[in-house]
């Protein structure tokens, strides 16, 4: 059973915990509106997580003040104990990490993806995301080292390890050379940027968009919602196609195989009518050419431009459908066919 001083102290701690949460619930949103009001869903989520960390931060910051008014029982006085210091380091690390997330969205909300040429925005998102990941790793490592320094046994172990740090470094370097290579590749990608968030790429024969760029791997969202996960150094060591490297605009092609008797000029006029009638075409490129001729068919290449690769794909499908419909309706005889020539043999009957 707890005695009266212990119960009073525990009650004071519980009251302080409720006060810190209630205070932050009322005050934090008002203070927030003075400085920044998030406009995106992710920005609001980051603010909510930051406020949760601050609620516990306020409680832990005010906790030592209780001792001035209500001295804690010796068995519960953890202010000077290692557990209090460790909890403080963990909480402070949590606050810093959530603050970095808030600052990221405050910075990125100045830029919008809702425009055709969002190359600058995608570049900034890629760099900020990678820098934040490196920052979090550094903060966690420093926090972990600070926790260990509060224990005498860990200090002694650390002093002993210093004598063999060179050998251990070589061993770790050989064992983790692939991970280190991926990390260095991540730095290179973040600043030279052969790929960026939301880039359209073709890798391993798959078309998709860059969804995530992490420290050691990249996630590509395939067109059918599958995810292709690749080591980050793949984009340094192997060739791949980036359809939005400098601009989102792209050209699309449609190949037709028709009979040599087709009227090419009429198809050129029809292609122009199809493109003029659709908002998918950006009115920059429109070409129809004979690119090959075999003994059975001729190859026609239709070239058209669009604002981005998804739009170009839809435009190509539309042009195929409309041109096929036009040929089926108006010139079915020009569709590919196989010719068979029959010759009648005559024989003379000799009397």
Automatic annotation (TrEMBL):
Residues 179-245 form the Mechanosensitive ion channel MscS domain. The keyword Cell membrane does not apply. Pfam families: MS_channel_2nd (PF00924). The chain crosses the membrane at residues 6-32, 53-71, 83-108, 129-151, 157-176. One of its GO terms (cellular component) is membrane. Coiled coil: none annotated. GO terms for molecular function: mechanosensitive monoatomic ion channel activity. This is MscS Mechanosensitive ion channel. It comes from Cyclobacterium marinum (strain ATCC 25205 / DSM 745 / LMG 13164 / NCIMB 1802) (Flectobacillus marinus).
């Amino acid at each position: 059973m707890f005695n009266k001083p212990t119960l009073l102290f525990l009650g004071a701690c519980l009251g302080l915990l409720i006060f810190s949460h209630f205070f932050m619930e009322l005050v934090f949103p008002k203070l927030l509106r003075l400085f920044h009001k998030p406009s995106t869903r992710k920005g609001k989520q980051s603010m909510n997580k930051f406020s949760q960390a601050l609620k516990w931060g306020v409680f832990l910051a005010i906790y030592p003040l209780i001792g001035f008014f209500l001295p804690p029982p010796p068995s519960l006085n953890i202010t000077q104990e290692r557990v209090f210091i460790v909890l403080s380091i963990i909480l402070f690390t949590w606050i810093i990490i959530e603050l970095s997330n808030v600052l990221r969205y405050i910075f990125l909300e100045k830029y919008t993806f809702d425009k055709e040429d969002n190359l600058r925005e995608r570049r900034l998102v890629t760099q900020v995301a990678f820098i934040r990941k490196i920052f979090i790793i550094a903060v966690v490592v420093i926090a972990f080292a600070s926790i260990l320094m509060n224990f005498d046994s860990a200090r002694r172990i650390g002093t002993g390890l210093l004598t063999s740090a060179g050998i251990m470094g070589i061993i770790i370097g050989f064992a983790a050379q692939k991970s280190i290579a991926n990390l260095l590749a991540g730095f290179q990608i973040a600043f030279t940027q052969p790929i960026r968030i939301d880039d359209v790429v073709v890798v391993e024969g798959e078309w998709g968009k860059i969804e995530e760029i992490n420290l050691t791997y990249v996630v590509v969202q395939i067109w059918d919602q599958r995810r292709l996960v690749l080591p980050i150094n793949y984009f340094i060591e192997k060739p791949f196609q980036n359809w939005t490297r400098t601009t989102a605009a792209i050209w699309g092609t449609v190949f037709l195989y028709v009979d040599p008797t087709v009227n090419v000029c009429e198809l050129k006029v029809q292609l122009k009518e199809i493109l003029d009638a659709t908002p998918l075409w950006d009115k920059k490129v429109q070409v129809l050419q004979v690119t090959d001729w075999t003994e059975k068919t001729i190859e026609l290449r239709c070239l058209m431009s669009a604002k981005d690769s998804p739009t170009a794909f839809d435009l190509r499908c539309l042009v195929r459908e409309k041109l096929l419909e036009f040929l089926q309706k108006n010139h079915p005889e020009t569709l590919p066919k196989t010719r068979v020539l029959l010759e009648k043999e005559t024989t003379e009957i000799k009397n």
